[in-house]
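From the shared-data thread, chain only:
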Amino acid sequence: MWQNLIVAVIVAAALLHFSTKYLPAAWRRQIVYLLARHGVNQDKAARFFKTTPDCGSGCGSCGSCGTDAKAPAAGAAGAAGASRADASQPLKRVIPLHVQR
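Structure, as tokens:
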């Protein structure tokens, strides 16, 4: 009986560690948002899941919804965004792969 309880606690701790470290950032933001809706402190949950506390709430500061509050600051850069065709589109990052044969 006690062994089963101890194993269940260890598995739960491992699952919690996995979810805070290896889940994609979008999933972690959704978890923080759902926990905040159910009464958990959003700032503490965001620190625990290593994400920003305001994402997923629809405030527009993280860019997950259609409006981005940081867009005027990015548009003011001018010279940095001049090389892109549309400065309002997010910068796409490319991971270069070096194939050795």
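Confidence is low (pLDDT under 50) at residues 73-82.
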